[in-house]
Amino acid sequence: MYTKGNWYHLIDTENRHHVMSEGKSGDMEQNVAVMSVRPEAKANAQLLASAPDLYEALKFMAERYKTVEPLYSGDRQAIEKADKALAKAEGENEH
Q1: How many beta carbons lie within 10 A of that of residue 84, not counting itself?
Q2: For residues 41 and 17, is the Cβ–Cβ distance under 8 A?
Q3: What pLDDT is recorded for position 47?
Q4: Residue 18, SS3?
Q5: Under a CB-based contact definition with an 8 Å cutoff, are residues 16 and 34 in contact?
Q6: 3-state secondary structure (DSSP) of residue 93
Q7: Which of 4, 6, 9, 56 can bridge 49 by disulfide, Cβ–Cβ 3.0-4.6 Å?
Q8: Series of mean pLDDT values for 10-residue runs along the chain (95 residues)
């Protein structure tokens, strides 16, 4: 399970990109990840900071979509892709 709480991106005085979590119920903030100063570091940190929100949204949508009838072929493919991404996020299929 991932660190709960709001995740956000910040840049330190050495231009390293951090992904931070506020924690839950006012716990101290935690450093979730540190990115290098490479050009893509900012985009990577922003994407990582949004990961918990994206995960929860995809999980909700995938479960809700499974209750819709009839499913069309594109719908089935979308659900399969969502389930695969969720399994990856949950550590299933690790090599």
Answers
A1: 12
A2: yes
A3: 94
A4: strand
A5: yes
A6: coil
A7: 9
A8: 84 91 70 86 93 95 86 84 93 74
- Non-local CB neighbours of 81 within 8 Å, separated by 6+ positions: none
- Where helices occur in 1-95 by DSSP H, the ranges are 41-65, 73-89
Token readout for 94 is 């690790």
What the block records as the tokens of 58 is 């995809």
Contacts of 61 (CB under 8 A, 6+ apart): 82
3/23 Cα distance (integer angstroms): 7
Instruction: With CA atoms as reference, report the closest residue to 20 among 49, 54, 42.
Output: 49
Q: Which residue has the tokens 């951090």?
A: 18
- pTM of the entire structure? 0.79
Tokens representing residue 39 in the block: 């050009």
The reported pLDDT for the residue numbered 25 is 52
